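BUG: 3D viewer hangs when loading the predicted structure for this chain

Environment: internal workstation, default settings.
Expected: structure renders.
Actual: progress bar stalls at 90%.

Input used:
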Amino acid sequence: MIPLAHVLILAALLFCLGLVCVLVWKSNVIMLLIGIEIMLNAAMLVFVGGSGHWGGADGQVFSLMIMAMTSAEVSLTLALVVYLHRRRKTVDVDDFASLKD
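Structure tokens produced before the viewer hung:
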């Protein structure tokens, strides 16, 4: 059994790496999505670690829900990225400022 403190430290490191990815490469859509996925994986790790520590299945159920949500999110956003790349020939977020209007 892995101690909960080790799981929380690993999850915090993963979350920080995902946050750095989002902040550094905020102009690239694909890197932005990868950073968000890493942060969601850190949250899932905390749920599963807490579930194992306290002996309940709630955290594992939440992690399965997050996995289902992220798989739907990835498929929709990658389809959107492919569509926008075909129209504008770029994946730079700053070029899509006209979509705000």
